[in-house]
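User: quick one
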Amino acid sequence: MGRAKTITRRSLLIGSFAVAGGVAFGGYKLAQTPENPLAVKDGVAITPWVKITKDGITLITPHVDFGQGAYHMQALLIAEELDLELGQFTVDPGLPSAAYWNTAVADENVPFQIDDDGWIAEGARLGLQGIFKLAGLQVTGGSSSVPDSFEKLRRAGATARETFKAVASERTGVPVAKLHTRSGSVILPDGTGLPYTDLAADAADIEPVQVDDLRAPSDWTLLGKNTERLDILPKSTGTLSYGIDVQLPGMLHASLRVNPRRTGVRRIKLRGAKEMRGVERVVHVTGGVAVVARNTWYAIEAARAIEFVFEPATYPAEQREHWAEVKASFTRDRRDRTWRHDGDVETALKKGDVIEQGCQAGYVAHAPLEPLSAVVLVQGDRAEVWAGHQLPQFAQRAVAKIAGIPTDHVTFHNQYSGGSFGHRFDLGFIERAAEVARQMPGTPIKLTYSREEDFAQDNPRQIGASRARGVVRDGRIEALDLKIATTSSTQSLVRRLGFPFVTPDPQIVHGASSMPYAIPHLRVTGYKVPELAPSTYWRSVGAVSAGFFAEVAIDELIHAAGADPMQERLRMIEDPASRRVLEALAEMSDWADGGAAHPAPNQGRGVAIVNSFGVPTAQVIEVTHTQAGIRIDRVFVACEVGTIIDPVNFENNVQGGVIWGLGHAMNCEITFSDGAAMQQNYYDAEGMRMHQAPEIIVRGLESGGKVRGIGEPPTPPAAPALSNAIFAATGQRVRELPMYHHVDFI
Amino acid sequence: MAEVAMTVNGAPVSAEVEGRTLLVEFLREGLGLTGTHVGCDTSQCGACVVQVNGMAVKSCTMFACEAEGAAVTTIEGMAGPDGTLGPIQAAFQEHHGLQCGFCTPGMVMSAASLLADVPKPSEAQVRTYLEGNLCRCTGYQNIVRAVMAASGQAVEERSQ
Ligand code: FES
Ligand code: FES
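Assistant: Done. Structure below.
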């Protein structure tokens, strides 16, 4: 694959997070391993992930679980090597620590595409990894939990296992080679089992035994098998405690009224809110007030009674101004980088009839089902926090700053979350809770967002548009010049977290520059729209817009060339993994040879393939054009990852990612008027409901190569495949997300 | 303030509540039954569904005092006293009908009303009946399979 060969030294050194290196969370040197944060009484902590006392086994699972199954996945990796059965241990996210620095998230934060494995890109990744280690940055996100954990957690399990064998050997005199482990015990040659819990105290006295070799996949008993998620039982009985369920003695409840324009307040009229039933206090917070009451509903009701005159937004007040800015961004000034240039696009475009098209994709909120909440207790020079967050150390730091205490005086308890999708990267909800708690020391404060407040304060995904120019010749695509202009959600978030951001943002074209095709003349260029409304990561980040732009443009050119959308993609595809995926998809969807199953006249099918987060994912979507609108009938999905750790959860994530992609493509957007989001609740941005959900048939291929996460890659191909299917069924091209501006859905 | 009395999961409860206390608030904050969730508090999402006298009700749309004398069942009342899962819960477990699980209690409670009315629903009936329950994660396919299985009907094996 041809790629831009030039790279400036500056962008090599400064990845989007690299500047974080200046703010070390501890004084770690690059070569040093952060110390083990676990302190264990009457037992042992072998590695930062395995804690065993005589009373039980706890596996530390620092990637927080907001539904993607991270706790289960992490526990499986440790348990596989430690020979534990499900049910023999509990899991705990642990406290934030540099020991849990993310070794994989650097992959998406260097100024290279994730599938670029050239030496410069790999070098930059290593460099950035070093800085992540230096900063001890603990991150859940970017589909990085699996790649980060795959080796190191199995190694942690193996280290603990061999350590227990060494202890057992010392205790019994049986040589280590004659011992093995099973079901939480070291087994002696005569079959006697010594439970790890009995060996724990002695294990504390020896150096952990380092292990070089991990078990071969053929020996796995848990990984790659269908297992029952650890949290499924408490979740289906209503006994699992989410962040929003945290109860502390003496706790009071807060509800916010803050400026939806993200600026300050001109005037406030309390209108008796202080005297309303249940209300204890009304306190000032950044951008407005919080009502503190005996329960959440009292707080919400009183907060609603208050009248405000807010300051205007610093970004454009009206949505059309946002679009105008996006569309004015295809300029030399705003060119961020040409990420790919194969052949000679300029000359090729001059030689043929140029076909032009453009797409756009609006802001979308995250709106996970559990509204944001945080509990903060400030007491003396200490604080405690209970909330679900993807960057726990940043949450800790933010509270410390507000409370005016050292960071290590803040204890952060990460909580189960009812979804995040990137929502819990931002710190606003934790900061507001801390501002209230600081003013009411000694009282635990639980801040709960109403759904309306959650929508109003959401920093949505990026907004953007594309311009494509192409030439077809002899039934083939000859040239494509794809320009993509979006705001940078990475830049917006990273700056809010307190760091400058200076590199080109690979997310602007993520999923487009990695298109798997050999087109004789192909160029993909990113343009950075200056920040408008603040935005943040949203399930699949840049790939949700760039993938849509690329695969709709490709489909239009294939149509202009008079070719079949599947056959032509198969012909053009160059990347071997993508080819395997698309071939599997063609076979599954019965579209292998021009299509054995011809759809009825009012039906259509569309295909799209997007390679995001290192995972080529392809979908065929079948739709029917009915009197009442478009019905989405069936979706076929094929994708390829290195190893599928947990097949059931894998499929769940794939199906979820597809519906996430489709539902938002259908009807979800955030638009601004007078500087505030116009959408307030699910009735304004509904997504897909159960009666609309298609059947989804999934096939996951395993390459055995680099391990990848699956939380995000299934989302990007859904919208373009849907658009392409609608075209096949109706002859209408839908070039905008959300699509309900142009077509009705059943 | 008014005195309100009802049975919740078979146990009689009574308390002083303000007239406009919502049923969901009474359950979650009054009784500590946090299995009933709030996702929207505007009857959009179905996370708060409980049964009132056997009928599925969005408990964010009902005042506690309107449940005076009623028999209320929440997700916590769906398993047996010994912890044995109810058939719908067991089917959610077996068919992996959840991810973050925040929608699950509402799904289980809505499904229970459906199956009480229509013991062997078609897949289309399940989908239509549960239309008011949002799953944002979104595991609709396995939720439908779980409800079909809970009604004793065969469900297809997983894809792959
Ligand atoms: S909380 Fe009652 S329907 Fe959403
Ligand atoms: S499992 Fe998360 S909302 Fe349904």
